[in-house]
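Question (not urgent): is this output format expected?
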Amino acid sequence: MKGFLEQVAMYLHRVYHDELNKFCIVFPNIRAGLFFKKYLAQSLDVPVWAPTFRSMESLMEEIACLGKADDLLLIFELFQTFKQHKQTNESFDDFYFWGEMLLNDFDDLDKQLVNARDLFSNVSDLKEIDQLFDYLTEEQKKIINLFWQNFNKGDGVLLKTEFASIWKLLYPVYETFKLRLLEKSLGYEGMIQRHAIKMLKKDAANNLPYEKYVFIGFNALTQCEKQLFNLLKNNKNKALFFWDYDDYYISNQWHEAGAFMRENIQLFPSEWRFDTQNLTCNKKNIEIISLPSETGQTKITGQLLEEICSQKKTKSDLTRTAIVLPDEHLLMPVLSSLPDSDLDINITMGYPFTSSSAYSLFERLSTLQIRARVYADGERFYHKDVSMVLYHPYIQNIIPEEANALIKFIIEHNRIYVSVSELSKNDIIQSIFKRCSNARELSNYFLAIVEKLDVEYAMDNKVKTENWQLKTFRTALQRFHDILIANNIEIDVQIFCRLLRKNFASLKIPFSGEPLKGLQLMGLLETRALDFDNVVILSMNEGVFPKGFQKQSFIPYNLRKGFGLSTSERRDAISAYHFYRLLQRASDVRLLYNSAATDSNTGEMSRFLSQLIYEPAFNVKQKNITFSVNIKSNKPIVKERTCLTQSVLNMYSNDEKDCRFLSPSAISSYIDCPLKFYFRYIEGLKEKDEVADEIDPSMFGKLLHKTMEIIYKPFINKTLNKETIAQIQKNKKSLQNALYRAFAEDYFKVEHVVESDVTGRNIIIREVLLKYVMRILEIDKHTAPFTILSLEKRLTVKFPVQSESMKIMLNMSGYIDRLDSVHNTMRIIDYKTGAVHGNTSTISELFSPARTGNHAVFQTLVYACMTRLSQPVTLPPPVGGGLISCLYVTKELFNEKFDPRIKISSTPIEDYSQVSAEFEYKLNELLSEIFLSDTPFTQTENIKKCRTCPYIDVCNR
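Got this back:
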């Protein structure tokens, strides 16, 4: 079936063959003109001079002799005008949102030729309406009357007073704003249209260079467009009109799709009528498909296209196939779901810039700048912001080695704030990591980075998407920069970033392609005047098509309706026309919608789909596609012993250079979960290193250990009495220095820190640590005298492990926090800051996977065992004394009856020899299972232990 544009092209060629070069042919958009040129060329048998082609926008600009101003420039100009009249100190950032809203209102009232003075007047006397607005209909007067009547009644006096004070300024702001633009030969779309009509009325003949103006495919006309059509029609019949419609919705007075077309046909009749009975007379396959996800829609679209391709002989036939996306965010998912990478595709819609990698780079750079700090030694950047920039695909694709080396440095040295000197590695990194203090510096900063990246990507001919994104980014930045300079506007960094963010929200990344070839992937407005055999429309949800939100406006709804400005009803009628017109000549129509209700989607089908289903003229098929989701229970993970596993285990008992040492914490991890032991100590899967922003429980424990080590280190192999410890307590400066040294070595990983380096919650943690240190010293003072034998010393021993058939000497190693001697008794002291306790009901309980909180008891007993084994070799024995294990648990330190000795059923163990036989028997039994048996490594049955396990994602528990 021949489409609308093809039929019009054939008619114009047939009737006006020799005169077409004197015609100006006007379309709603440029794309319709491209297709018309193609059809006109196909209908010619000899070369002719082509007519002039215009969009309505370009025609109005030509008549008005005004250029369309950039939206950002318009808002800056409007801001300056508003400040002039309001005499306010309001910032541009505060003005931006409602400045956009006001600009849309001005645009609308100009397009509809509304008298701005009348609109922005506050009519207190209702009788004035009849006198002032005699050009309005009675219905319009009633609506305006109703608004002011209600406005002048009721509560909210303060709000109404504020509204009225702004309202009376709008007319002078409107007039001054337009004069400012006229001086620069610029305007917004509505202003240009209004000025064009004014120019035509003054001297119509001199402003009409063409013999005829042909208007093709229009629907909802503004009052300016109607005036243009009238002026041309009445001026020697210079206008021809071609309307695209169907009798189905034109003949039904209540059908919203024909709301504007019925008036157009009456006011501006077409000189030729083509077939207008296509919607219901031609056989169509219309199918409505519901799917429970957005992704499902895109996947089904790919399958539908495969089906269409299989019915076509060549891919060129897909020119008559359109995929329409009312929701532009589905563009990339749809592209990734198309069946053939060699398929010719023409993308007529822009991709939202806010969904691009370039925009994510802007966000990361903005955050980097906003959170940058200036210290005495220079500028510093927050580590997460630095890492996010370095991890960005643009940076990783260009300088991956430098970026990853910096990330590694930040993690290894726990740099919370990274100095500029530590980041200056190459030209791109130097450009990124420098602080900007104002908007102009930041504008130049963004431009410099984007230009450098653009140069790098331009060298790679394969990478096109990144080039498009960067060019769009750079163009928008340059416009913003130029406006800043031209208007001498001073704003801070945060406001500048917010303004850019608002500006980017409406930015689109254009795609290049051959518009007349291949599959057409389109936005809804791009389908105007075009016809397709196969149509697939996605996102046919209420609120998406038609859009559910109403444009923000400073003009109340009743006044908009009374003065004939656009309303939500008008927008819905326009959407209805686009929808039904797109279906008119199509033979195969697939309409998809998301049936899943979410925060952003109601799951409700569009009202247009409901109309199709219930209107008897259409035979609509419905298909409901659901996903079968079966949640299967996770299979237990079991790692059987292999030769490789055993070879790793053997390394714990050999004497080679590559031998391994088993720690008490490793043994403890096997008790908790054998699979965890396997992952960490056999496979070598380590936890991901990260920068610790704040001190977590683990780091808190390290800082306490390190502080006590620094305090007691000068006293190793010396006897500490009460007086000595009291002197240590009194020297607060020395204690604080010990704390800062601990922060420097274990947390910041630098040589030294000062008080100002410890900030935020860490100040509180520092004070808590100091209290714990003071309490430990107080406890030690009551225990004194005692002799410190070692601090944080590594202890290595050979532990005999024996089964029925084998015996090995296992390498064991560990760090004992403190070893001291009190009254001829050697004490093993372990500082614990977590949720632990120093009591166990039995020795056997320590080896049970179900144990809770007493793993510290197990660990100190292992240390006691190791100390016993190493004593004849490495440690001086106490004179006639024993060996005990002690826990300094922070949550118990302030208990008046605090006793650090570990306990069995609340009874302190006086000497390790009391439990050594039983404990070492059980320990041998456990180590035999690990190293000398075929027992597989399995998951723990205690799911609670999985919550804090670093391998929880591997097990998927």
